[in-house]
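General statements about sequence and structure are easier to judge against a single worked case. When preparing material for the folding task, we compiled for one chain both its residues and its backbone structure tokens. The amino acid sequence and the backbone structure tokens for this protein are reproduced below:
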Amino acid sequence: MGESHMDKAKGKLKEAAGKATGNERLKSEGQADQMKGQAREVGEKAQGKVEGVRDSLKGDDS
């Protein structure tokens, strides 16, 4: 499980705990962690595509 998935899971737990206890700060932190995870996931996908293009330009089929 990548860091992006961990951030999103942690965020969901925090948000749920915040909702259950009425703690708005914890709820907001959870939402922020989820957004951080989403942004990290987008970055990881972009990096993978760049590496794929780089490898295809090199002629590396492995």
Summary: The two ends are 23 Å apart (CA to CA). Helices lie at 3-21, 24-58. The CA atoms of residues 3 and 32 lie 15 Å apart.
